[in-house]
Amino acid sequence: MTETVAPALTVMTVNIHKGFTTFNRKFILPELRDAVRKVGADIVFLQEVLGEHEDDGRTVNGAPHYEFLAEEIWPQFAYGRNAVSPRSHHGNAVMSKFPIVRYQNHDVSIAGPEKRGLLHCVLNVPTHQLEVHAICVHLGLAESHRQQQLDLLCEIVRCEVPEGAPLIVAGDFNDWRRRAHDMLWREVGLREVFVTAYGEAAKTFPARFPLLSLDRIYVRNASVHLPVVLPRRPWSHLSDHAPLVAEIHL
């Protein structure tokens, strides 16, 4: 009897910078949507996603960015509002080709003006018996804040993710000193996919000439095949962070 092998999932993470090029020079969300669609990922982790804005110059037909990006390709999406201003709000989002059965946005903001969140989604992947957990991450700029936020991430994993369930954690960690790897492995068994595959995290920022390893994909109870950093063309024009893509085997 031949054992059925579940197909791999393609995941992508990218900080979309609220739909603007570097330094907010030009609104390029339609171009960015075309580029994201060409990747064909099953699950997309997005950071700095505009939810609502009164100025149509920052949206397309007034739609939240995640709805515009997901339209016709990703039937399921979840949004976690983090930063709120009088005229708009933004946060993290997950777009999925599989049902999102539930989700929760965790506020991990530390004292001060910088607002951050961890968006935890639970997916029903038809080819897999167990629910798949996906956490979209955007951590703070200050190292002391990041350490506290990593502690909170570990606590969420311990409390909300069953030990045997597949888990994907992806996003913008702002961890330029690479402190997260050892901690996440030691505390909750998460492995970073580029470190596992190539021995070091991918350099993603700034996208035009990447020097810092800010963006990550971590997994538990899953394996990864040949993770890649997407090429500078067209991505260095579309975001200040280079996107990451990986094939996840559950």
UniProtKB/TrEMBL annotation:
It holds the Pfam family Exo_endo_phos. Residues 12-241 form the Endonuclease/exonuclease/phosphatase domain. One of its GO terms (biological process) is GPI anchor biosynthetic process. GO terms for molecular function: catalytic activity. One of its GO terms (cellular component) is membrane. InterPro entries: Endo/exonu/phosph_ase_sf (IPR036691), Endo/exonuclease/phosphatase (IPR005135), GPI-anchor_lipid_remodeler (IPR051916). This is EEP domain-containing protein.
